Amino acid sequence: MPSDVESAMESLILVFHRYASEEGGYYTVSRDKLKQLMKTELPSYLQAQKDPAVIDKMMKDLDASGGGQINFEQFFCLIAGFSISCEKAYQMKLKKTKKK
Amino acid sequence: MPSDVESAMESLILVFHRYASEEGGYYTVSRDKLKQLMKTELPSYLQAQKDPAVIDKMMKDLDASGGGQINFEQFFCLIAGFSISCEKAYQMKLKKTKKK
Questions:
Q1: Residue A100 lies in a domain
Q2: How far apart (Å, rounded) are the C-alpha atoms in residues A29 and B98?
Q3: A49 C-beta neighbours (distance < 10 Å), count
Q4: What are the chain B neighbours of A15 within 8 Å (beta carbons)?
Q5: Cβ neighbours of residue A67 closer than 8 Å, sequence gap 6 or more
Q6: Looking at the complex, does the CB of residue A39 fall below 8 Å from at least one CB of chain B?
């Protein structure tokens, strides 16, 4: 049985490849597919955004080459940003429960 | 129900905190706890390593301050490295199955 970390890593790889397409041997996610991914995988984040251009800004931050596609490494940076923010929120929750 | 990405992020946060201890309001994982984490969460990687100092080298790479502790962001960099290698292996597997 895979460990929690192995399952989490596998899950992130499979989600990326659910939205990725292959061209010239490279697997990447387009802007439109990133929008679909975000709607399905991180709906609460997307709904909380007032800025309709949030996906375009995300792509701009992630897609260094400007080709309109992101690879797995760039996708993982996106997930890292969300995870680090969530972990900070989790820490605050821990500190609150400790004060009680 | 959480999405696959939400579950994976939550899982990585909970695993980190399973091994982390709190000091001065900061949650970090020590070298010894990192070794335990690796043994439980990524056993096949650890067993494949010939170098007994692999954990010390990992700490050196991750622990920029040299305080012998890693925070969640540094832990996430470790997971990123493994995930990116695994995804490359996954891509090769996909390409092989396509050639058949």
A1: no
A2: 19
A3: 13
A4: 4-5, 8
A5: none
A6: no
- Domain with B24, as residue range(s), is 4-99
Q: How many domains does one find in chain A?
A: 1
Q: With a cut of 0.90, is the ipTM above it? A: yes
The Cα B14–Cα A95 span in angstroms is 15
Instruction: Examine residue A69 and state whether it is found in any structural domain, yes or no.
Output: yes
Q: How many beta-carbon pairs under 8 angstroms link A with B? A: 102
Tell me which chain A residues have a C-beta less than 8 angstroms from the C-beta of B11.
Answer: 4-5, 7-8
Quick check: B53 contacting A, CB < 8 Å? no
pLDDT 10s digits, B24-49: 889 999 999 999 999 999 999 988 88
Residue A37: what are its φ and ψ, rounded to 5°?
Answer: -60, -50
Kindly state the percentage of chain A with pLDDT values over 90: 73
CATH code for position B65: 1.10.238.10
- Bridge partner list, A22: A27
